[in-house]
């Protein structure tokens, strides 16, 4: 399982990026995949649990190193599409400046409910797909793939520069704006850069503790991805949030 980082213009703005954003990828542990109705379990040491709806591309054929993928080639490599949620422990991600651990805990990649196997003509409608995520009925994320920076054909080409993909591999293609985590204002960011790391993070997380959009035990996340005409519909993913101390093993 591989994921694209900062791949929607709206998410880039939320994250404080300006100018061109270089394409970047990161890995998530395969063991983080969970079912579309299973609880997302927050580890006991994680305080700032965040959501990221993402379109998942499921490979249907080998992609050897060196492959160049054009838009017309997508049906030859992608078998189908699936809803994924790139759940993130932001306090782990930011303080350790890495993604693998913060996004790889068990249940941190709810996937499904449907694997939509596409016909070749369906690929012309990918940019019409709309990603919508709500928490307890409140809409948080709502964008189409037209907001995407690096689109699937280019993403596969970039990945094929350094690794092979195999049938069944899963590529998460980034999340739109609307996550709980937002970059601080520029003035605050400049002041924070002058502080020792421990002081900076303490101040930052103190401010984040006032943010009501992080996930809490008992919340219910609902995610859908579909085209307006229903030609492609990946179903509805509905996952409750549970605490590790209360979740049955």
From TrEMBL:
Coiled coil: none annotated. The keyword Hydrolase applies. Transmembrane segments: none annotated. Keywords: Hydrolase, Metal-binding. Pfam families: FAA_hydrolase. Residues 229-249 are annotated as: Disordered. One of its GO terms (molecular function) is hydrolase activity. Residues 2-241 form the Fumarylacetoacetase-like C-terminal domain. Belongs to the FAH family. This is Fumarylacetoacetate hydrolase family protein. It comes from Streptomyces bangladeshensis. The lineage of its organism: Bacteria, Bacillati, Actinomycetota, Actinomycetes, Kitasatosporales.
